[in-house]
């Protein structure tokens, strides 16, 4: 589903070249929950930005469902990116819009009719468990509810891949578990492929099938969660 081949990203800094992602090769299977864990500065954010086409690699390639993200631009990149959706640590909601209008936003951009949008938003609100909160504004929601809006919005246009950027890092432990359970539920019900980055071991242990450990831009270990984290 997702293929990273010898992927590298170098930044020019005042101190010379900085290799943020260093020759990463990995693939994420259809329907898998794949975690990338590492300390701050390991290169996780750069990797996820390469995955969704926000950054261009210095070398190597990113392919999602057979379509190369890394070398595409314009219409081809837009069409490749329609398969990919993302949720964020700080939710990135539109603060002046209600819950249902936040979720409806990507549908509006996609040119979906008002009637169809209403129907789809209702389905999504049920899916993420926000029934009754349709008219609330983000500032009236708890952190967990905000992330539920983020998830519903990300799913609106039926993506094939959901990227999660530290999606539970701003939440308390109990809310974290509820959101992780929702992600597992969505993965099972919709067969959605999930790739997440995190610095939290708990997130990996709780929901990931496989994990890659990043250090200084490189993947230093990769395997099933049991293989990597089971201490003998
Ligand atoms: P993580 O998400 O694991 O904390 P990042 O991908 O944010 O890691 O950063 C990896 C390295 O790349 C860090 O040393 C960071 O300072 C550097 N870096 C990230 N983005 C840029 C940029 N736009 N310009 C220069 N250096 C960057
Ligand atoms: P928009 O609704 O177009 O995003 P705003 O001016 O409402 O524009 O918000 C701009 C940004 O400010 C938001 O994307 C968010 O990051 C931040 N922000 C606004 N209101 C809040 C809030 N109540 N809590 C946290 N962040 C906020």
TrEMBL record:
Q: Name one GO molecular function term.
A: ATP hydrolysis activity
Gene Ontology cellular component?
Answer: plasma membrane
Q: Which keywords annotate this record?
A: Amino-acid transport, ATP-binding, Cell membrane, Membrane, Nucleotide-binding, Translocase, Transport
- Ranges for domain ABC transporter: 2-232
GO biological process terms, alphabetically, are: amino acid transport
The text of the family note is: Belongs to the ABC transporter superfamily.
The protein's name is: Methionine ABC transporter ATP-binding protein
**Which species?**
Paenisporosarcina antarctica
The stretch of the full-length protein covered here is 1 to 232 of 341
